[in-house]
Amino acid sequence: MKHPKEERTYIMVKPDGVKRGLTGEIIRRIEQRGLKVIALAMEKPSRDKFDGHYPKDPKWITRLGEKTLATYAKYGFDAKKELGTDRAEEIGPMVRGWLLDFMTSGPVVKMIIEGVHAVDMVRKISGDTTPASAPMGTIRGDFSVDSPASANRDKRAVHNLVHASETPEEAEHEIKYWFTVKEIHDYKRSEEDTMF
Ligand code: ADP
Fold first, then answer.
1. Is 117 part of the annotated catalytic residue set?
2. DSSP label at 6?
3. What are the tens digits of pLDDT across the range 10-46?
């Protein structure tokens, strides 16, 4: 069985993060925590590549629509008027399309991170999907105020700086999807002797 400090996750600085010059800041926050970058590259993937990255499961797609409806309800916006429907299962596919437009709008920086509870820790450092409700101290909470209510009015995805795997199973799948074994590096960080 693997040691907990060998857990791996996948994180990607999205085009907005790269264009805003936040790549270094994002890596700094991850490394500061004691997590280790074991693979890293800048790439401009095709729409097809992102289409294969984001799930096609109807449940996942509907959840995107639910996020829209939640912020529309909170701020009193009318989904039917703005988007032509108030059904999450119809809004979800629109959001997925906008997400592919966004992710192909510039280069991304992809990374594999290793360390204790890497999946949960990187999600915690990233903050909630919606920057407007992400806590201060997180990447999304400190560097953005975007929200589906605002993004969807402009027919676009939420610009939230990073993508990070949600579960160890998703991480394993995404690591394989984005990196070859040869691109992953093994080294010891000097903190490893004192932190753990
Ligand atoms: P996370 O990236 O936090 O895991 P999801 O997997 O739910 O979030 O969504 C994938 C990405 O789609 C988000 O990071 C965000 O960029 C975008 N997104 C999610 N929900 C919406 C929405 N309702 N409107 C616009 N963009 C959205």
1. no
2. G
3. 999 999 999 999 999 999 999 999 999 999 999 999 9
Nearest CA to ligand 1 atom 7: 64
d(C-alpha 21, C-alpha 24), whole Å:
7
| pTM to 2 decimal places | 0.96
CB 82 within 8 A of CB 113: no
Closest alpha carbon to 10 in 111, 126, 128, 138: 111
Contact 17, 28 (CB under 8 A): no
Residue with tokens 């959840």: 63
Residue nearest to atom 9 of ligand 1 (CA): 64
Beta-carbon count within 10 A of 35 CB: 24
Q: Which of 13, 14, 158 to mutate to test the pocket of ligand 1 (most atoms within 8 A of CB)?
A: 158
| C-beta of 17 in contact with ligand 1 (< 6 A) | no
3-state SS assignment for residue 112? strand
Instruction: List b or e across 142-152, with b for residues whose CB sees 16 or more CB atoms inside 10 angstroms.
Output: bbbebbbbbbb
Q: Which of 3, 53, 163, 185 is catalytic?
A: 163
